[in-house]
Structure formats: structure tokens, C-alpha cells
Design goal:
Layout (H helix, E strand, L loop, with lengths): L3 E4 L2 H19 L4 H4 L8 E7 L2 E10 L4 E9 L8 H13 L5 E7 L3 H5 L4 E9 L2 E9 L9
Parallel strand pairs: 4-5
Antiparallel strand pairs: 1-2, 2-3, 3-4, 5-7, 6-7
Length: 150
């Protein structure tokens, strides 16, 4: 069964995205709720991955400035991991909205750096703690004069 990936449409989809994040980050990884839900949620573009009509994965894209977008909150429910849904979410964002930005950044949990490197992201700077979990900033730049680089 192929996943259906797209922008969250309406309140119910955004609630589904938040529910997945609460399950993965708050319940599984013990991220405090106050740190998981933030001001960016109001302006972010939220994405939903569905299998057979069931919402099982999510991610968001935040415009930091005119040339930089930030991918974040990439999460897949435990029972659906290993099926490529996280990859599909990241690929969808890069392919559909990536060209609007000269740079895409994200803050990767250290254990997920290899996952994001497959999409052309490179770690920059040192390790920092976010919600008690070690992270590193990663970025992916669009090649000059090549809008199809994403």
C-alpha cells in the first residue's frame, strides 16, 4: 500500500499531525509538551502521511526568512516505522516546497543524522541539547542556477 502524503488540509488534519507528534515526541521520547507545541505551529505548513486513510506520519515546514525554510517535527507512529514514511515525508517537502528556499535547515536528533544525510543535508556546528535530546543543525543548499536541485 502506497502512502498518501500531502499538506494538512483544515483543522482535523492539523489535529491529526499534533496527535502523531504527541505520541512520538511527548509519550515515547518524554519531550515536555510545552516544548513540543510552539509558536511556529500557527504559521507552519503541516504535512500528513496516511496509509489506508489512517494518519500515521507528519512533518512541518517553517519559513524562517525569505530564503530559509526549516523542516521539523518529522514523526511516524511506532507501528509504521521502517516502511519509508519518514523518507517520503522529507522527499515530499523537498520536491514540492524546497525550490522556494535557497537553504533548508533542520535540527536533527544525533541518532537521525544519517537519515537526513541521504537527502543532501550536512551537519553544521556542534551538538546541542533540545528537550534533553542531543541534536545538530543540518542544512541543504540549493545549487546555484539549478531550481531542480531539490
Amino acid at each position: 500500500m502506497q502512502p498518501v502524503i500531502g499538506r494538512a488540509k483544515g483543522f482535523e488534519d492539523v489535529v491529526a499531525c499534533l496527535g502523531i507528534r504527541l505520541s512520538v515526541f511527548v509519550a515515547e521520547q518524554a519531550v515536555p509538551l510545552i516544548e513540543e507545541v510552539d509558536d511556529y505551529d500557527a504559521t507552519a505548513t503541516h504535512y500528513l502521511a496516511c496509509l489506508g486513510g489512517l494518519a500515521v506520519g507528519t512533518a512541518r515546514l517553517v519559513r524562517l526568512d525569505g530564503s530559509t525554510g526549516k523542516i521539523g517535527r518529522v514523526a511516524v507512529l511506532a507501528a509504521y516505522r521502517g516502511a519509508g514514511l519518514g523518507s517520503s515525508l522529507v522527499q515530499h517537502i523537498i520536491a514540492n516546497e524546497g525550490a522556494a528556499y535557497a537553504v533548508l535547515v533542520l535540527d536533527s536528533q544525533v541518532t537521525a543524522i544519517g537519515f537526513y544525510e541521504r537527502f543532501g543535508f550536512r551537519a553544521t556546528g556542534g551538538t546541542f541539547m533540545d528537550a534533553g535530546i542531543p541534536h545538530r543543525r543540518m542544512e541543504r543548499t540549493r545549487e546555484r542556477n539549478s531550481p531542480a536541485a531539490y
